[in-house]
Structure formats: structure tokens, C-alpha cells
Predict the structure.
Amino acid sequence: MTYPLFVLVNLPKYSNLSGPLTYSHDKILPAGALVRVPLGKREVLGIVWHQTSGLNQVKSSEKSIPTDSTESTTPPYSALNIKPITSEINGIDPLNKQWLDLIDFAATYYQRSLGEMAIQALAPQLRDLDSTQIARRLKKNIRKTDSKSAAASDAISNSEHKSSLELNLTKEQEQTLTEIEAFPGPFLLWGSTGSGKTEIYLRYVASVLKTEINSQILVMVPEINLTPQLEDRFKRRFASLLKNNAGQEIVSMHSGMTAAQRLQAWLATHSGQARIILGTRMSIFASIPNLKLIIVDEEHDPSYKQQEGARYSARDLAVYRGKQLGIKVILGSATPSLESWHHAQKDPQGVGTARYQLLKMPSRIGHASMPKVHLIDLNQQPRGTVFSAQLLEAITLRVQRDEQVLVLLNRRGYAPVLHCQDCGWKSECMHCSAYRVFHKIDRTLRCHHCGIVERVPQFCPQCGNADIAPLGKGTEQMEELLGSLLSGVRQSSGEHLNILRIDADSTRLKGELNHQLAKVHSGEVNILIGTQMIAKGHDFRKITLVAALYPDTALFSSDFRAPERLFSLLLQAAGRAGRDATLANASTSEMWIQTQYPGHPLFQALIEYDYQSFAKQQLIERAQAHLPPFSFQALIRAEAKTQEEAQLFLNTAKESSVHILKGIRGKYSGSKASWLQFEPALFPAIAMTVQRVANIERAQMLIECDSRLMLQEFLRHWQVELQNLQGQFKGVTRWAIDVDPLAI
Ligand code: ADP
Ligand code: ZN
Ligand code: ZN
């Protein structure tokens, strides 16, 4: 007898309106089971879906058949045109209902196909290996586990490392822990940099591991490659948890791992063996059967939002997952995203939604204070000043005392543009509407958008002039300049200064970043120059001076989130200074900002480290301008051979909106749902800021709506229009919807 099987596969151009595909099999498999199925000429991975048909109708498994019973409500099925599955994948438990629901929610919310969402959420090797290969891998994993003693069960109870227990929590930390224990959350832990947030995570993780048998915990960080320290801290803290087992109790999940490592971590997590999962945004989709706690560190960080394919927000999904499972979620930050902040306010004037519980830890550990902020007005400086005399003097003083200095400049390379003084030629990229950046180190011009690399021409390609010069400044040039400006300065030992640059270029090789960070931690580096990479999260102990060189461009960006991001970046950077209160000069640590707009409210708030009033001001502006979190947005981007075609495609699609809205209201006629009164506003299509990348023209259209539900419903229907329309616009190569876009 054969039965039909609904299976999710990742089809190219798989419309979000098409559901799972139907295959046949000689028995019924439970939803969540992994199978291999034929697809065209290929054989691919599939996930058995609930055995009721249709996408978005399967909201709960109540309707699905009892899969472990042979008395199925589905009639025996004679396959006509339906292909049988190739094989079952044995040895891996089916993904559970909560996981399937998470995928269903994410696919619906982010307007992607279920199949794409589901398959991409798995470890890549699960889809790349066939069932025999997977079986072999499983066997190998089991052998590994067996070879070490597996008496882990009571290791948990004394899993906390001794030295950490000697550390007394501060009053604020104790209060915070008590509240986390007592309330259901979700929590927004708003704590200064260095207030001991990580210590809270460690303690609460220990407590959950102790009280909940077999519990698993997900800890997310924005970029795990940048924070090997956190991994270390967890591994040290829970050392005895590791000791007794096969080394699978704490696993990482991030894109820096090999496919084999990722599969191993995925299997350890899915099987329940991994108790602590440390991961970047992708880990939100891990199958974690006994998940009991989710922590999202630096919750404001934009890298929680996936910027291609299914553009999900891992932070928002963490909150969803927490609610779905009835478990606690802790979002932590010194500068929460304004969305989260808004959700943590309950203000009598009706501002805020009180959806999150706010926990405050304003003080830094050991009474270390935040560095004092000095604003240097560049208008008062001689023209062309790069490092003001005052700043140079302050830096000199610090390094002479063997304290460390961090210089932040958010632009890598030597100079953003190369330029001919004779004819005005600039190093434009021939494929993109952007300049190629001059990298002096290997004398190349690199386009940071399409990646094309070329040797720097010796003569101007346009007029032959030999006098081509760099315009503007990047990290490479700062490194060089600072080296020469401070060439006479010595460390206390009389040795020359060590200046180290850390950015995407200096850390391209695997392991290089960790290697360089280790140099900073060991104290061997005097001055660290870098991009935002070095501003985030690192627990540098000897830095007492931080300088931000040209932060001004963000003040006038067309993206309404730019000020929020700049404030957070500068505050994070400042947080790198004076972290060790036992250090002699920690209390006199400094943050220097060189700007042409010292009077700007953002800098004025920063001087006081007054996130609260900055956030309040920003939220007032957002409310007035009707921007998120007071409205909901989606962005649709289209790529085409010409800009006109990309825009015409979007604008034509826009015309159908009236008719779609009418359809929605018709469909729900008789319903009194309040969201039906809202109407999405579609703005005219415009070229994207970098409108051409690798010879492809890019346009976008913003959609705004006061109701999330209406926006969702609208997008779902509008997709069909867009799909149909694409057939008429042959030049349109791609289009995609970005729900809750972060970059506009
Ligand atoms: P955050 O995550 O808020 O930046 P951390 O948890 O990293 O702060 O704490 C900053 C530093 O203070 C760390 O080196 C940590 O070990 C130390 N620390 C944390 N809590 C305490 C405490 N209660 N007593 C002493 N030191 C602490
Ligand atoms: Zn020229
Ligand atoms: Zn380019």
C-alpha cells in the first residue's frame, strides 16, 4: 500500500504560495522526518510536512493525522503521477512540532516559501549528503561519544567553576537575577558596558541547567567570530560540564565553522546532547528539543537581521520562540534598539507597550566610571587636521604609561577614492555606482561592492598624468599617519610603539582575528586602530583612551536609523575604555570625538551617556514622522538591466494595490477585525543608494502600514501580482521583499 506524503523541498523560485510537494511512500512518516526525494533530475533533502494539505492552513497539528498510528484518517492511496520518495534518513529524530511551527511562522512572516525556510534552517551537510553518507556520519559521531566516558548527569549540579563563585554579585546584579527568576519575561536587560551582564547570563544559565533536567540553552551573540572571549568564558565556567562528556555539551553555531563542524553541532543540539548553544543569528533555527532559555546579547546589533535570502530577524524570532515555548528570553544591551526600548516602556502617557520587562544595571563593576567624553570641534582646527594636537597629546600620555589606546574609524583601506588632480578622474568602479577604494598595502584598487580587484594604475587612465593622489582617509592611512606622528614616542621601557590595525582586510585569513586580538589582550599592542569590528563587545582590560575620528556622515544619512546606530557604536566604543577598575588610571579614562558638529544633540547626549534621553528624543521624532516602532515597514527591491525597468516594474506592481486591498476587505467582509480599516501606503520606486552593483541596476519601494496584520495580509497577496508581473518584465532578474527592513 502506498500513502501520500507532503514534503518540503527547497525549490528554486519556489513561490511562497505553493505548498509542500506530494510524494508517495509505503508507510506514513511523522511530520518532521527527513527524507531524500527526487526533484527533476536531482535528488534532494525533504522534510515531511503535516499531512494536511496547503500552506498557511496548517497552523496547528491538531488537524494532522496521528502519524504513529496505522489507523490513518488518510485513505490508502494509489499513486498515479506521484513519485515515491528515494529514501528515509534514519537515525535522526523527526524535527518536532515546535520547530515546524517556528519555520511556518518565519516563512509566513518574512514572506518566503516554507520549503526554502525549512531546508536552509538546517545544517548544510544535511542537504548535501545522501542518506548513506549521513548514516556514516552518525555512526562516527556515536563512536566519538562512546569513546569518552558519558557520565554527565550529575556533573551539571557542580558545573560552575570555582573561581566564579568567589565573585560576589553586586547589588544590581543580585536584584536583576532575582527578577529574572521571579518573572516570566521577556526581559530587556539594559546595562552599561561592563556592568556585568555576561555574569548575569552565566549565573542564570547555571541556575537553569541545575533546576531543569536536560535543559538546553541558546545564547546568541551578533558575531561569534568577534567574541571568542564569550565562548571561552562559557567553556571555563562550565568546565566540569564538559569534562565528563564527549565535548558536545557546549557547541557553537556560526558561519565560520566548516560544514562538518556545523553538522556535528547541529546533531548534538538536535539530539539534546548539547546543553549550551552559542551562536550567531542562524542558531535561532537550530532544532533544540529541550530549549528552556534564550539569551540575545547585544540585541540592538544589526547583524541579527539576515540581509539576503530570507531576511529574518533572529532577535525577533527569539522573542517569538520564547513565547511559543513559554520560556524566558533575555535581551541584553547597553544601547537597546529603539524597538525593544519602546516595548520595555510603560509610561502613563501611553508611550511604550510594556511588552518586555525592563531590568536596569546602570553601574559599571567596581565603580569604574565611563570614560569622560571630549568633543573636538574640527571647525576650530587648522584645515585638514586629522589628529588634533590635543588628541595627540592625550594619546602620547597614555602610551607612555603603557596604557592602551583604541582609534575608531569606520572606513577600511587607505583612501576611499583615488583621484587625478589634472583631469579630475576618480577611481570609479566600472561595474558599480561606487568608487574603488585605494589599498596601499598591496597597491590595489578594490571595489567593496562587487569585489573587483585591480592594480593601481601608475598613470591616470584618462590623461596619462602621473600625479594621481588619494582622497579621504581609511584605516591603513591612519595607521601610517599615527606611526609617523608618534615616531618619537616610546613605551615606558623605552621601546617603540606597537600600532596594530584590525579590520576586514587585516583579518581575512582564518584565525588571524583571534591572533591579533590576543596581542591586544596580552598588552603587547599600544595603539589599536580599526573599524567597528573592534568597538563591539571585547573585554579589553588596558584601554584607557578611545578616539572616534570621523563619525559625522551618519548624522545626515537618509536612513532614519543612522543616528541610533551611531550613538550605539560610539557608546560601545567608549565602553571599551576603563573596564578594569583596578587599573591605576581607569578612573580617568577618556573618549575623544572629533566632529564638525559638536553641538549636535546626539553628541550632547553622549557626553552624559544619556541613552535614555537620546532614546526618548528619537522616539518622539519617530512618532511624529510615523516611523517604526510606530508603524510597520516592508521594502521591496528589484534588480534589472536598467534602472527604468526596475522602477517601472515596482511602480506597475503598485498599481494593483487598490484592487488587492479591495480583495482583502471582500474576503473578510462581515468580520469586525479592526486591522481591516488600515491601509498600506506604497511609496514611489526609487533607485537604491548604491544603485548599480556588478552591472545590475537596483531599485526599491517602501511600504508602510499602521497595522502589522494588514501589512502581512497585503504582502501575501501582492506577491502573486509581482510574480505574474515579472513575466512581463523580462529585464527584471530578481525581486525580494524585506519585512521590517533595517537599512533603508
Ligand atoms: P558586560 O557583559 O556588561 O560588559 P561583564 O559581565 O563582561 O560585563 O563584566 C565586566 C567585567 O567585570 C568582567 O571582567 C567580569 O568578570 C567582571 N565582573 C562581573 N561581575 C562581577 C562582580 N560581581 N564582581 C567582580 N567582577 C565582576
Ligand atoms: Zn587625469
Ligand atoms: Zn564594483
Remarks:
- The pocket of zinc ion (ligand 3) is lined by residues 429, 431-432, 447, 449-450, 452 (CB under 6 Å).
- Confidence is low (pLDDT under 50) at residues 53-79, 146-162.
- The chain is about 30% helix and 20% strand.
